């Protein structure tokens, strides 16, 4: 997802080049994750793509016949975060770049951060479930290193409460489908990975609510 004012790109994103044209060091499970998503959702004409910088959702157009969920720098957590947003985006939203939302970058003021946390509760609850299904450790992303101090503990409680509601009442259909696929593919693996000790790598923030 891109911050306000950044330019869009409708071309297919490279899956091997990172910042300053340096090779991306890919988590060893990322290729399997990409294949799993693409196979699981082949009926949606949507592919998970390893990007070089900002995460972004790109709908199909004349230059690319399929929709792209582009995640940042080869991070497994970034991929799950972007997938979680896609899982709650409605059909109309999925026809628009970044689901039709403007995004506010790191450095948000207190009210902007509060707005961020409201709209991130559901996708991060889904991401939490997906992370568990992949045998990894989840950490919420308050994503505001250069802005107002976030209430990380309060946000974590809100995301956890939403996760419990989803577990009790059911996940959105695409989320439920991918959680099952992740469990079948990854859950038998070791639960801890080096990346899980670092904050989630999300670089921009939706303003105006979850895609629906």
Identify the notable features of this structure and list them briefly.
three-stranded mixed β-sheet, 212 residues, globular, 5 helices, alpha+beta, single chain, 2 domains
Protein architecture, described:
- The protein has 212 residues and is an alpha+beta fold.
- It has 2 domains: 82 residues, no CATH class; 104 residues, no CATH class.
- The protein is built from 5 helices and 5 strands, in the order H-E-E-E-H-E-H-H-H-E.
- The strands form 2 sheets. A 3-stranded mixed β-sheet has the order 1-3-2. A two-stranded antiparallel ribbon has the order 4-5.
- Helix 1 packs across helix 5, helix 2 crosses helix 3 and helix 3 packs across helix 5.
- The longest helix has 24 residues.
- The chain is globular and about 40 Å long.
Record the SSE blueprint.
Layout: H1 30-40, E1 46-51, E2 56-58, E3 67-72, H2 76-87, E4 103-105, H3 110-133, H4 152-169, H5 173-186, E5 204-206
Parallel strand pairs: 1-3
Antiparallel strand pairs: 2-3, 4-5
Helix pairs in contact: 1-5, 2-3, 3-4, 3-5
Question: How would you spell out the order of helices and strands?
Answer: HEEEHEHHHE
Radius of gyration based on Cα positions: 16 Å
Shape: globular
- Characterize the main sheet: 3 strands, mixed
* Share of helical residues: 25-40%
Number of domains: 2
| β-strand number | 5
Oligomeric state of the chains in view: single chain
How are the strands ordered across the major sheet? Answer: 1-3-2
| Secondary-structure class | alpha+beta
Strand percentage: 5-15%
Uncertain spans: 2-21, 194-212
N- to C-terminal separation? Answer: 16 Å
């Amino acid at each position: 997802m891109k911050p306000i004012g950044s330019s869009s790109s409708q071309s297919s994103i490279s899956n091997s080049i990172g910042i300053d044209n340096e090779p991306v060091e890919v988590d060893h499970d990322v290729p399997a994750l990409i294949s799993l998503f693409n196979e699981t959702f082949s009926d949606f004409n949507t592919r998970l793509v390893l990007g070089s910088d900002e995460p972004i959702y790109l709908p199909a157009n004349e230059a690319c016949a399929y929709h792209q969920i582009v995640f940042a720098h080869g991070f497994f957590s970034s991929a799950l975060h972007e997938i979680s947003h896609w899982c709650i985006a409605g059909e109309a939203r999925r026809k628009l770049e970044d689901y039709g939302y403007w995004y506010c970058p790191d450095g948000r003021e207190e009210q902007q951060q509060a707005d961020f946390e409201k709209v991130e509760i559901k996708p991060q609850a889904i991401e939490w479930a997906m992370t568990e299904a992949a045998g990894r450790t989840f950490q919420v992303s308050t994503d505001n290193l250069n802005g107002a101090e976030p209430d990380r503990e309060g946000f974590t409680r809100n995301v956890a409460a939403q996760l419990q509601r989803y577990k009790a009442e059911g996940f959105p259909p695409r989320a439920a489908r991918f959680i099952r696929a992740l469990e079948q593919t990854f859950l038998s693996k070791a639960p801890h990975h080096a990346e899980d000790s670092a904050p989630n790598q999300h670089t921009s923030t939706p303003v105006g609510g979850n895609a629906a």
